[in-house]
Amino acid sequence: MKGYLRECIAHLRELYRPKTVIRRTYCTRNIMETVGYGKIKNSLLLLDESVMHGNIRMQIECLSNLAAYNVGFVDDRIMWSLNCVKDSINEKWLDRKMMVKYIDCLHKFGEVSILRELMPRILHEFYFMPPVDVSRLTRIYAMHFKDSVEFKDLRMKMLGYLNVQWHDIGLDHMLTCVLSCFHIPECLGLARSALKSYVENLETLDVNNIKTLQTILTALRLNRRLVSYSKESFFPAIEEKSLLKTIDFLELSHDWKSRDGVNTVTRICIVLSIALKENMKLELCRLVRMICEYSSNTDSEILTTRSNIYLINAISLVGDNTLQGVKSWLVERIKPHLPMLTSSEIVLLTNCIDEDNDYMFLQHIICLMDELTPKDLVKVMKFYSKYGHASPHFIEKFKDKFCEVWRDMEPKELTCCLNYLVKMNAADRLVLLNSVRYIYDHSIDLGAKDVACLLSAFYKAGFNPSKSVIKILYHLIKRDIHKMELWDLAKCIRFAFLQRNAHHDLFNVLLNDVEKKLELYAPPCVICNLVLSLFNFKNRRFNTILFSAAYETMKYMTHQQLGQILYGFRHSGLSNDNILRKVCHHLIVHNGALDYQESYDALSAVKCGKYDKVIESYSWKHKIASSLQRFLMEGGSIDVNGLKSSEILQCIYSIGNKTRNRETNNTVKQLCSKICKMGSLITPSVARRIMYSLTSYGYKKPKIWKKLTNRVAALTTKSGHKGISKTGLHDLGSHGKQSATIFRRIELGPPHLSGVKVRHKIVT
Question: pLDDT tens digits for 579-615?
């Protein structure tokens, strides 16, 4: 009987899942055993009897008891009773206490439509309710209708109620009401006043009252929203004080050792981990261990699945390796309940799962794909674009879901999804065209950051939209350019630089604003991004401003960023030994962090820039352990007999920029001897490249020269072309034509007449 009842409950939940998006609980075996099958059965029988007799009060009491048992299954008798109460509530007077209980039952059983129908009656009786009922009803309606038109009237009623009852309402109800109505600017002053009152009374909160934990949680959530909205912290020590108060409560009281108490503490953990500070890390780890130790020592499942998810996310945000064992234990507890998780709970897990469990969770995400909201889709795609765990089949599912819901997305959601699809190589023509349609339909709603993300995605996808789209984005940038940060401008200018000939107005507007903001302050990461985005840009005025900003922030750069600055400066057309000296000085500071390849790249960048004197006192020779790398960098001697064929060619290609000396001459002579013995490995294109390197170095020995010219001539005879092909000239570089005409056979005629029939025979 027990097993059959559990299966029925699970089946009913699966059927009911698509109809609601509110928070739901499910009934596990231990919950049923703890509550007792008899109590649930008796409550259902009593509910059935009260429906038959039309007893509204008894129905609400039975529904309230079932909701208090934390049994979230949907039974026909429960649904029938909820509808009966709704139909009878207008005919018979229902007192305030019963009304609040009924609304609480509707909330827990997911009847959102009935909650909407009762909204006018709540507004009519709002001012006559005590604070405890006002805070509870406001919180319920905020969870379901916070972005709807219906909730606006309730917010305005709440503001008037708070202004009148501010000094008489308790701290708990004050925080709850302000948190529920925080979506309007008028609540900012009330939020600061409520949090100020909380900080002043935090030390006096009763550690023997379980409501203290709920007060701490509500205050932390309100403070988090206030910081996110105003971009500044009005109470810097509120998180640390709340954490210490929570630990004191857990150590001094046993009231928290219940399902509701543990769940509240886990929610406190996740809120504190989001706003984590370094001095809070040890205490927060201690709090997590206290909860997990108590849960592992109890027989009943004191931790719900959602509490497990909160703790897993908190451990991931803390980043303490000592808690990895606890995290694995929590993940194992969740696995048996995966089929019962909602889409929002699965999305929460995407931030903290590892590669071992990735495929298992991904399967359930695909099963719940129809339930994913655009916001959930952004979170899931962010995870899988970052780590690249998803297979092409699953990525195709994400792309199809995006093509279904892109019209309902907010601008930020669409731009994020587009960038994630580009990162996963899933942004095909259909995805890009849908993004273009969104720009046409919602251009007035696009902000500065949205435009920057769109242009960045177009740049990465190699997509060039039409001129009308660029014109729309150009006007949006001109409208909001004062709101754009330097990082947003860097995203835009990468696209505009490639299209500067076709859209020169867009490029000039961005370039001028970048110049202004560079003169104020620029983070090192943004400067490096600009250097790489505007690579080989020969505007001397702009490059002077850019590398002057790099010069000022060079002491904060990593060795990789210094290498990027050095690489960009080499191709900027500027000549400034001070910048090079400073780069080399800071590279010496990072010398212990450089590996062989990074040291070689740094030296190559300076060396190719013809700044030999600058690096005389800044050498990383001891870091370049390979003799091959040392020869490629500086020349000199090398054991040619120990080199592979590819390494021999690599060495001979690099001698074009070497200074002639005795050691290098001997090495080049040995390399040429090896090349003469390679035979078929020397293709015509390779031969031309070797000829160019030898010509640049000044080494012209008859034997190697004859071998190379024969290889080039073999191609000419075999292919039937007269002279050297265009491909060959391209391989030779800028001096290709000059090198080609030196070794051109006289019977082929002048190079500019290749392919033209000559009437007069050329006498050799």
Answer: 777 777 777 666 555 555 555 556 555 554 444 444 4
Plot region of 755 (φ>0 → left; ψ -120 to 50 → alpha; else → beta): left
Q: Say how far apart CA 436 and CA 459 lie, in whole Å.
A: 14
Structure tokens at 226: 């206030």
Q: How many angstroms separate the CA atoms of 249 and 315, rounded?
A: 21
DSSP, residue by residue, 551-584: HHTGGG--HHHHHHHHHHHHTSS---HHHHHHHH
Q: How far is CA 436 from CA 242, 414, 457, 490, 749, in A?
A: 48, 11, 12, 21, 56
Q: Which of 140, 68, 62 is nearest to 100 (CA)?
A: 140
Range of the domain at 695: 636-753
Any domain includes 717 = yes
Looking at this protein, which amino acid is placed at residue 218? Answer: T
CA angle 95, 98, 104 (to 5 degrees): 140
Handedness of CA 374, 375, 378, 381 (dihedral sign): negative
Q: Comparing C-alpha atoms, which of 478, 472, 484, 412 is closest to residue 436?
A: 472
In-domain check, residue 640:
yes
Distances (CA, A) of 239 to 212, 268, 287, 324, 325: 15, 10, 14, 24, 26
Sequence-distant (≥ 6) Cβ neighbours of residue 351 within 8 angstroms: 313, 316, 379, 383
Q: Is the dihedral of CA 413, 419, 423, 424 positive or negative?
A: positive
Pure H helices in 368-481: 374-387, 392-405, 411-423, 429-441, 448-461, 467-480
408 occurs within a structural domain: no
pLDDT (tens digit per residue) in 277-309: 777 888 888 888 888 888 777 755 677 788 888
Reported as a single tens digit per residue, the pLDDT across 409-458 is 999 999 999 999 998 888 888 999 999 999 999 888 898 899 999 999 99
DSSP string, 156-188: HHHHHHHHHHTTTS-HHHHHHHHHHTTTSTTHH
Give a three-class secondary structure readout of 252-296. Answer: HCCCCCCHHHHHHHHHHHHHHHHCCCHHHHHHHHHHHHHHHHHHH
Phi, psi values for residue 272, rounded to 5°:
-70, -35
Residue 349 in domain: no
Number of structural domains in the chain: 1
